Amino acid sequence: MASGEGRRRHHDLVPLAALISREMKSEKMEKPTVRYGHAAQSKKGEDYFLIKADCHRVPGNPSSTFSVFAIFDGHNGNAAAIFTREHLLNHVLGAIPRGLGREEWLQALPRALVSGFVKTDKEFQSRGETSGTTATFVIVDRWTVTVASVGDSRCILDTQGGDVTTLTVDHRLEENVEERQRVTSSGGEVGRLSIVGGVEIGPLRCWPGGLCLSRSIGDMDVGEFIVPIPYVKQVKLSNAGGRLIIASDGIWDAVSSEMAAKSCRGVPAELAARQVVKEALRTRGLKDDTTCIVVDVIPPDNKVEPLPPPRKRNKLRALLFRKKSRDSATKLAKKLSAVGIVEELFEEGSAMLAERLGNDDTSAQSTSGLFTCAVCQVDLASSEGISVHAGSIFSTSAKPWQGPFLCADCRNKKDAMEGKRPSGVKVA
Question: What's this model's pTM, rounded to 2 decimal places?
């Protein structure tokens, strides 16, 4: 009898290779398909975009693939938009520590995005060119979407239930009261154009320079209180997937987020992007560059049943984004996914670099044994690094010798962005 039970247990065993095969198949089944399309109409030739669907977290490992989609809307020339398209991605990835697992990598992204944006701005300003650009930068890793943005290009999420959510914040001085207050407290002046007789016209602008935006990359002739520190939002989609619409202000000045989403529902991503541009041109005409990228995150086999209409939509909107701590139980995540609710993982829009880079309990040392600058990633001797918290009014609980650390050049930029010293920018 015992030998029979032993034989049955023996036959229930599964070879290791089969187990690995099952796990890989399961992972593949759980991974969504990402499809995308792009369309544009040019008026000034200052809109640029980036689509890179074959990035790897682990070099050479196809299972670590993620996708990047971005729009850069230049002004006062196209140099800043071109430079940012060519360098921002590498600067972001260079700020992420090596050897992280996927979950740790995703958690490190918000801070790396801040470092990458600031480094790109710092490098471009060192060239002495005066153009600027907005940047809306989207990373899609399976079901997780991370968006970083400065300026007024926008990214929206259209979910299966028909709810449209904006994943960015418009940094226009006209609409954003908090940003107006930040700019003026940092030393900038905000006002409208004045014509003969003292009549004020047009949108609110920052002086000197007359820029309508409070955040951008470049714009060295305006002052460094126009900061490149992005608003960052990270969400996890449900197993119903969703559609992202990323577009420059040539689209959003013509149509609302809801109109853009509605105009292209039910059609593939490539056609959807053309539909959004077509709707914007129909509404307003070609008054500005209009660029649109549509990204569909599609469930495996696309077999998710449509959601029943909610009884009270206001309750659904209240639940649409629900905060969740990193170390909370997975039961909530599964429940949210089951009912098609998008889960918010991270959101932060502060323009204070000390708040965005956080604290390092370790010494933030590089593999060479030296300290590294949290922004430009250069090696620093222990006597050279300046804590990002040193002298900050927001660091009452932080120690001025606690990392992350900045080199002297990046510390000067931090002080200029916060209005602690006049901008060192000189424009001929």
Answer: 0.83
45: alpha, beta or left? (left if phi > 0; alpha if psi -120 to 50): left
DSSP state at residue 62: G
DSSP helix/strand/coil, 115: helix
CB 37 within 8 A of CB 271: yes
Q: Is 383 exposed, middle or buried (0-12, 13-18, 19+ CB in 10 A)?
A: exposed
CA 5 to each of CA 10, 11, 37, 44, 178: distance values in angstroms, whole numbers, following the listed order: 9, 10, 58, 78, 72
Q: Which residue has the tokens 């809307």?
A: 73
Helix, coil or strand: residue 103: helix
287, 250 in Cβ contact below 8 A? yes
Tell me 78's DSSP state.
S
What are the pLDDT digits (tens) for 240-270? 999 999 999 999 999 999 999 999 999 999 9
Angle at the Cα of 312 from the Cα atoms of 310 and 318, rounded to 5 degrees: 95
Q: Helix, strand, coil: what percent of the chain each, to 5?
A: 35, 25, 40
> What is the phi/psi pair of residue 122, to 5°?
-60, -45
Residues 247/260, Cβ–Cβ less than 8 Å: yes
Alpha-helix runs per DSSP H in 73-208: 79-94, 102-125, 177-185
Q: What is the pLDDT of residues 293-348, one digit of tens each?
A: 999 999 987 654 444 444 444 444 444 444 444 444 344 444 444 445 789 999 99
Report helix, strand or coil for 85. helix
Mean pLDDT of 223-242: 94
Q: Residue 52 is encoded by which pair of tokens?
A: 């890179």
Q: Please enumerate in sequence order all residues whose Cβ is within 8 A of that of 342, keeping only pairs 6 or more positions apart, or say none.
A: 157, 159, 165, 235, 236, 237, 238, 242, 320, 321, 336
Torsion of CA 325, 329, 331, 334, to 10 degrees: 50
What type of residue is 134?
A: T
Torsion angles phi and psi, residue 214, rounded to 5: -100, -15
- Selection from 131, 152, 119 nearest residue 209 by Cα: 131
> If you ran DSSP here, which 8-state letter would residue 395 be given?
-
